């Protein structure tokens, strides 16, 4: 009974995390004057402040020791995730929310390739098939944008996916590390990116109250609370459940901007996105089936 209750709670937590993450697109579209660099800077500072408060409360005087003990993998993971944060925000600036989110969803396939070459992990045959399907989907989406003389947003989206893949590999290298420490390093990296962009482009640091509120909401709730819910639910669920349930972000995000501001994805975008989602579902289900067989043996 306790296990069943925990499983139900885990499902609710991860579904809710996906919903919180999915609001990034609409929050970004509702900005008035803020640039991607403003969003990176203020969103990251908001999350950084919240994490500092949490660490001080949780670790008391041992906070600096915990950060040092996290080691190089946490620093590398933070750099990768911070780069992913920057790539995703810049992708939202130059392409549709649907394209940005679909490309971000391809991160597991890049993680599989990175794990193969960096950690020596094997890649199952079904994963190769799923990666091929996802590659076709990415080609359809990117090809459509390039034919229109665009494609910059898709490039940033791929950078974000590569960043998340790097994060995944770093967490595998030291799985016992507190994931929030990696996120803490990532927010530092993203805030540096944002500050650098503001300085280079000589942009004012001041923002309208609406933009400040949106940036704070992104930091505290869209990313921060989303990660807290996902982490809380992860300990009750299998990997396949985490993969499939967190797809609510990719599905709900484009729907929200479609309904609220009528940002309608193109047919190639929907086609390519559908292939990427199908590939993720295929990989998750086949991995779960393989795991069950291994347990039975």
Features:
14 helices; 297 residues; mainly alpha
Please state the oligomeric state of the protein chains shown.
single chain
Determine the N-to-C terminus distance.
27 Å
The total number of structural domains is: 1
What are the secondary-structure elements, in order, as H or E?
Answer: HHHHHHHHHHHHHH
Radius of gyration from the alpha-carbon trace, in angstroms: 19 Å
Low-confidence sequence ranges? none
> Hey, roughly how much beta strand do the residues contain?
under 5%
Total beta strands: 0
Mean pLDDT equals 87
Shape: globular
The tally of helices reads 14
- How much helicity do the residues have? over 70%
Largest sheet data: none
Name the structural class.
mainly alpha
Question: How would you characterize the overall build of this protein?
Answer:
With 297 residues, the chain is an all-alpha fold. The protein has helices at 2-22, 24-29, 36-59, 63-69, 71-94, 97-104, 107-118, 125-147, 152-173, 179-200, 209-234, 239-245, 248-261, 267-296. It has one domain (18-296). The mean pLDDT is 87. 83% of the residues lie in helices and 0% in strands. The two termini are 27 Å apart. The protein contains 14 helices and no strands. Helix 5 (71-94) packs antiparallel against helix 9 (152-173).
Compact description:
With 297 residues, the protein is mostly helical.
Task: Indicate the topology.
Layout: H1 2-22, H2 24-29, H3 36-59, H4 63-69, H5 71-94, H6 97-104, H7 107-118, H8 125-147, H9 152-173, H10 179-200, H11 209-234, H12 239-245, H13 248-261, H14 267-296
